[in-house]
Automatic annotation (TrEMBL):
Motif GXGXXG location, chain numbering: 11-16
Span of the annotated motif GXSXG: 38-42
Keyword Lipid metabolism: yes
Record motif DGA/G, residues: 168-170
Catalytic center residues: S40, D168
Molecular-function GO terms, alphabetical: hydrolase activity
Record PROSITE patterns: PNPLA
Any GO BP annotation: lipid catabolic process
Positions of the PNPLA domain: 7-181
Record-given protein name: Patatin
SUPFAM superfamilies named among the record's database cross-references: FabD/lysophospholipase-like
Tagged with keyword Cytoplasm: no
Amino acid sequence: MSPTFGIAFGGGGARGLAHIHVIEALDELGIRPVAIAGSSIGAIMGAGMAAGMTGKDIHDYARSILGRRAEVASRMWRARPGTIAEAMQNGIRVSQFNVERILKAFLPEAIPETFAELKIPLKVTATDYFGHKLAVFEEGDLHSALAASAAIPAVFRPVMRDGRLLIDGGIYNPVPFDLIENDADIIIGVDVVGAPEEADRKQPTSVDLMFGATQLMMQSIIANKLKQCRPDILVRPAVSKFRVLDFLKIDTLMNETADIKDELKRQVERVLEARNGAAVKGRRGKKAG
């Protein structure tokens, strides 16, 4: 009997476009996960896969929108506040977009309204701001869970759900492989957090410093988690040179991270060979006994 696979897609904003290569590689290997977990952009990519979209489907859809500035602008216009009262709610917050409206304008139709309609079980993380803890969603309304998971502070407004104020799931659990460690035989983790890089030796802006500090915090969380438990496979696409909102650089990002497909395939092959070798030894041991 073939081993089952689970996959955890990490958060990282636009850097998470590299998740598409991972999904394509799994498609090419004929691997269909039995469990998926995701944080932030990873939750959105995971929802696409859980809904039955192939890596090519997601790739083509993302490129058809993000590859055209006019299309992005059109969808952003659709996501604008519906009324002046909504725009002025709790004061003017020009830097905080409504992430639920943004997702409604950008998500593919293939992603359903509820978790129950997904073809593969999905766990979505968010951070319960006042509860000071991780929130995990796996049932009920899917879109509000994805919005909460992707609500990057200072960019998007928090999301209210079940009486809780929710923000970016990557803050508490950047690569949530631990949420599915008991749901499949082989667990894959995909880390797209990246780390600050010296870009042309320029002094980083306050915004760069804020996002860079968040990257460092998330990397610290991941490092501590890996000391406690590790996924069977962990891949880290080379995404550090890209910023959290570099979605319009999709072509460059996809070209420069394409080698992650072959790396993942090699790692899957090694894990399967190791499992097969262990199984053969186990059978020999039983015969000898």
